[in-house]
Amino acid sequence: MDKQIEVNLNALPKEILYRIFNYLDDFHIFCTMKNVSIYMNTIIDQYHRYKILTTLQLCNKKLGVEQIILVANTLKENQIVTTLDLGVNGFGDEGIYYLSNALQQNQTLIKLCLQLNKIGSQGTEYLANSLIQNQTLTRLNLHYNEIGDEGAKHLGNVLQQNKTLIRLNLIHNKIGEEGTYYLANALKQNQTLTTLYLAENEIGDKGTEYLANALEQNQTLTILYLAKNNITDIGAEHFGNTLKQNQTLVTLSLKANEISSQGAEYLADALEQNQTLKTLNLKWNKIDDEGASYIAQSIYLNKQFQKALELFYQCEQTNNEMISDLSINQALKSCTNIKDFQSGLNIYQRYSSQIEKNNYILASLIHFYMQSKDIKNAQILFNRLKNKTVGIYGAMMKGYITNNMPQKAIDIFFQITNPSITNVSLLFNACARIATDETLNLVKKVLSNLPDQYQNDKYILTTAFDAFIKSNDSLNAERIFPKIPQNRLSYGNLMSAFNRTNQPQKTLEFYKQMKINQIELDPPVCVLLINACSALGIYSKSKSISEQIPKSYLDNIFINNALIDMWGKSGCVEKAKNIFDSLIQPDTIGYTSMINSYGLNGMGSEAIELFYKMPSKLIMEETYVCVLNACSHSRLVEQAQKIFSNIENKTENIYTTMVDCFSRSFLFEEAENIINIYESNHSPSPSMLMSLLSGARNAKNSQLAEKIFNRIEKYFPQIQDRIVSASILLANVYASTGQMEKSSNIKRKLIQANLKKPSGLSYTEVNDEIYMFRAHDSSHPRSSEVSDEIEKISKELISYGHKYDSSCITRPLNENESVESVLCGHSERLAIAWNFVANPNISRIQITKNLRVCDDCHESTKLIALIRQCEIIVRDASRIHHFHKNGKCSCQDYF
Ligand SMILES: [Zn+2]
Ligand SMILES: [Zn+2]
Fold it and tell me: What separation in Å is there between the alpha carbon of 854 and the centre of ligand 1?
């Protein structure tokens, strides 16, 4: 049939063909009509639209590999198209293979856009190889692909020689330190690249160091974007040092990194000398007002230091004896600032006797040494001084901090009799950098012993706040929060500390305050709020927060990924799916969150289906864990086995999840087999053994439980949490198999050793308020009503035939306790009861619990849902249970 059409077309006069072409779009004229026959090629070459086709827009046209082959074939000989946009097609590495081949021959293309095409390291290798040959391409856009470190390496290697590329866009490509290393190496050699976009990658301080070093040599790059990476003050310092020398960079964006005032100071130092940088974007870092003023001052001082030094020399020549202390101090400061260390040393030698009499100049001299990284001479000078002022101590502390020796700064602090505000702030700054329990205690101690006049100092409190946040002490951070400047940044810091320390309700509470203070949301704070909702898992809260996210942020990938996770964990798979489906090109986190949402809600088959749809290069360890977990909770053992056997690099977590899957289905032989395979070349894993043990508990298999428990005790005597959990599981097995004596022995041992299992904690929302209940919690203001309700529910349960299951009790009973009273005190029981107290006719209750729901609570909740005709949704540590009004649970008692 093809043949016949070909014959027909060749027979048509060109005028008629032109008429046909008039109705075709660029893509068809360019690709499908070209290379059909020599006749057609000649005609098309003469066709006016083809002659002026310099820009070919094929963005978002759903082009697959077949279409790319057509484009590539035409491109090989084409001499007209200079701009080709193939973005958002998703043809992946295979498509790139054909395009790269074409690029080796093409001599016309100047700009090539390949954003959002699922290009991985393999594709990048093809592309890089083609750039060795190609001599025309100046702009390459690879925005939002997945080239990773490996791809960056290929590009970097080629860029060392490439002489045409001017702009390279690598935004959002999972490039980390290693990949940056190769790109930086390229920059040292390359002499054409002027613009490099590396925003939204995974570049930390190490990568920044590579780039900064490269920029000391590079003489072409004018624009460098590093927004949204993981750059801290250390990275800022590297850039600072480079900027003092670099004379080409005009725009540097470090937006949305982790730079604080300390980093701002380094950059400020650099700005005093740099003459070329016009734009330095530091938005959305952790820089406070003080840091901002450093930068402002340095911009003002730009060029002034050199002038000051010149004046000093003039003064010296004309009037040697009259040089004042102030002038020497100024000159020394100027030398420090322009990094003219030799001149500084000369000045010191000429005026040493005068300098040694003046404490202010001595402090400047220590600062001078420290900034020139001559720590040894700073120390020698410092030790020699008899009357040390707070300024001298401060210069020394600051020097140590600058040179990344915070512990030394702390040691110095203790030598100061009456520390100044700056000294105390420097101490807290040093503590924040170390952030251990020890430094945290030090901050608390120093803060509580501060003299009255320092108690409310904004500067001291801000640095203390930072130290608390970095040490995860949200309680103290919250305590001093009202006394420090309250802005989006300080709110964000506090919220992230709450999230990290499992206090999501606090994050939402402070958001209310933030609204009252009229502080607007930004994407990072939105993500913090969504994460808090994920942790809470309460539908109404999730809904309310999602509605408050500004519309303009709804295409932000971080926000969307966080939302998928939130809806999944709030029991709304449908909403999670809607967001997932709306993503143009979901990344690893998007896919994995969606798979996990299915898994948590017992939709194993959907999880597996999506897993198989996921591009393989996006799959990471976490993805495997989530899909295996999903199988595990839906009894899809065979499917799990199939996935498991195809995984190339199986990590401890992946093994553990598979063991868990077998154990939940009581396939203990298979589980033990896998553990043996793992242990044949790894040391035993506590979590793997725990999974098997909890399976044995569920199966009431005391023999196996005993065996595994002994292994855990033998291998991991030092991991107390594990021993406690393992002991409790074993005690439960004994209790459920009637071996009460053995069971109580274990529980007694735990009590004697003062070891406790983590206490149960449940969240629920009642009338727009989040309530938190611990087991046997009587702190609720209407606690007696809650107790009455629990008693009422218990009577109803018994009348429906419920028998309290004593094997679910994890500790010996106290004198005034019964099996019933202990089980009814479990945190989710209190949360359920409170819902009925507050709204007697409630028809939907939602609870999130930190531990696994016990068998007795599971049975009881099913009955409560039936008796009270109320849907109850409980998210426990491993999944979400939907208890329906018919008395059944969505997990089908498999949890
Ligand atoms: Zn329970
Ligand atoms: Zn259930």
Answer: 4
In this prediction, residue 15 carries a pLDDT of: 83
Proximal ligand: closest to the CA of 895:
2
Q: Diameter of the chain by CA atoms?
A: 107
Per-position b or e across 48-77, b if 16+ CB within 10 A of its CB: eebeebeebebeeeebebebbbbbbbbbee
How many whole angstroms separate alpha carbon 166 and alpha carbon 141? Answer: 11
CA of 853 to the centre of ligand 1 (A): 6
From the list 230, 274, 226, the residue with the least C-alpha distance to 250 is 274
pLDDT given at position 857: 94
Nearest to 533 by CA among 554, 511, 555, 556: 511
Instruction: State the ligand closest to the CA atom of 883.
Output: 2
Q: How far is the CA of 822 from the centre of ligand 1 (A)?
A: 9
Q: Which ligand is nearest to the CA of 827?
A: 1
Of the candidates 520, 499, 519, which has an alpha carbon nearest to the alpha carbon of residue 508? 499
**What pLDDT sits at residue 134?**
84
Separation CA 892–CA 167 (nearest Å)? 57
Q: From CA 810, how far away is CA 209, in angstroms rounded? A: 53
Amino acid identity, position 867 = I
Rg of the chain over Cα atoms, rounded to whole angstroms, equals 34
654: tokens are 């992946």
Residue 649 three-state SS: coil
What's the 332 CA to ligand 1 centre distance in angstroms?
71
Q: For the chain, give every domain's residue range.
A: 1-51, 52-284, 303-387, 406-484, 486-582, 585-640, 761-883
Name the residue with tokens 């009814």.
824
Ligand 2 mean position to 620 CA, how many Å? Answer: 29
pLDDT at 322: 66
Low-confidence ranges of the chain (pLDDT < 50): 1-3, 300
The Cα 24–Cα 27 span in angstroms is 8
CATH number of 486-582: 1.25.40
Residue among 798, 803, 820 nearest 867 (CA): 798
Q: Which ligand is nearest to the CA of 894?
A: 2
Task: Count CB neighbours of 494 within 10 A.
Answer: 25
* Helical axes 702-715 vs 720-736, angle rounded to 10°: 170
User: How far, in Å, is the centroid of ligand 2 from the Cα of 878?
Assistant: 11
Q: Which CATH number is 52-284's, of 3.30.428.10, 3.30.390.50, 2.40.10.120, 3.80.10.10?
A: 3.80.10.10
Per-residue model confidence as pLDDT tens digits over 796-809: 999 999 999 887 77
Taking the C-alpha atoms of residue 837 and residue 785, their distance in angstroms, rounded to an integer, is 7
Q: Which residues surround ligand 1, an ion (CB under 5 A)?
A: 826, 854, 857
Q: How far is the CA of 785 from the centre of ligand 2 (A)?
A: 27
484 CB burial (10 A radius; 0-12, 13-18, 19+):
buried
Which pair of tokens denotes residue 42? 């000649």
What pLDDT score was predicted for residue 300? 47
The closest ligand to the CA of 824 turns out to be: 1
CA of 697 to the centre of ligand 2 (A): 17
Separation of 829 CA from ligand 1 center, angstroms?
8
Q: How far is the CA of 670 from the centre of ligand 2 (A)?
A: 25
- Give the number of the ligand closest to the Cα of residue 600: 2
Question: CB under 8 Å to 850, separation ≥6 — which residues?
Answer: 502, 758, 760, 761, 762, 877
Q: Which residue has the tokens 């003489």?
A: 219
- Tell me which H or E stretch contains 141: strand 139-141
